[in-house]
Design brief:
Blueprint: H1 6-33, H2 38-41, H3 49-52, H4 55-64, H5 82-109, E1 120-121, E2 125-126, H6 128-146, H7 154-162, H8 165-173, H9 175-194, H10 203-220
Antiparallel strand pairs: 1-2
Helix pairs in contact: 1-4, 1-5, 1-6, 5-6, 5-7, 6-10, 7-8
């Protein structure tokens, strides 16, 4: 994830751009189908990256693998059913990344390509196999990560709207606590780069890497 070679950076830049544009469009489009025209009215229900990509976060994400990559405006109070509408609109983002991963996995399933995490063209550009492999793996990573039930990730909002009303009030009351938990987990994950022994107690690795690798193997069929 922290491959800072030119091919690694270029590959992540392409993958993250595609992933975030589709992710945010999915949020906006499903919100629109639920009656919320906020993104549509502001010209942000689009696949144009200029509309919803958060560029400072995007470049940080390309370099370090973690950041807020984008945002699409969604307003549950304009939906016909705020709770179910919001659940669908928010879940649509991560699900769109899963769909992207599945689509790019087709050539591997058909044995037209072989997975590669390091292939290059001329030592600088990522090879087609490398780019396609990253497109699958990183979209799966975004799918799993965004569904963690921690604020401000999509998973927290999905849980909020899936819980019974009384339980959702309790969940919302502890939103800031889950934010602190996420912040701590991310710091611990980054610390493993410099203190490898911490990898043994890195919960993000268990919560994200294992499910991502499992889904990856299923999709490509290797």
């Amino acid at each position: 994830m922290f491959d800072l070679t030119p091919s690694g950076i270029i590959s992540r830049a392409i993958v993250f751009l595609v992933a975030v544009v589709v992710h945010e469009f999915a949020h906006a489009y499903v919100a629109f189908t639920q009656g919320d025209t906020t993104a549509y009215d502001s010209g942000r229900m689009t696949l144009d990256p200029r509309a919803n990509v958060y560029w400072p976060g995007y470049f940080i994400g390309v370099l370090f693998g973690f950041a807020i990559l984008g945002s699409a405006p969604v307003n549950p109070y304009r939906m016909r059913n705020p709770r179910s509408g919001m659940l669908l609109a928010v879940a649509a983002g991560p699900i769109s990344n899963l769909i992207l991963a599945a689509l790019f996995a087709v050539p591997f399933r058909l044995r037209m390509l072989t997975p590669s995490l390091s292939g290059t063209v001329g030592g600088i550009l990522p090879s087609p196999e490398r780019l396609m492999t990253d497109m699958i793996f990183l979209n799966l990573l975004l799918f799993v990560f965004n569904l963690l039930p921690l604020s401000p990730l999509d998973g927290w909002t999905v849980v909020l709207n899936a819980l019974p009303r009384n339980a959702s009030i309790w969940w919302q009351r502890h939103q800031q606590t889950t934010l602190y938990i996420l912040f701590g987990l991310v710091l611990l994950s980054f610390a493993t780069v410099y203190l490898p022994f911490l990898a043994l107690i890195n919960p993000l690795n268990w919560l994200i890497s294992a499910p991502t690798s499992f889904l990856f193997r299923i999709l490509i069929g290797y």
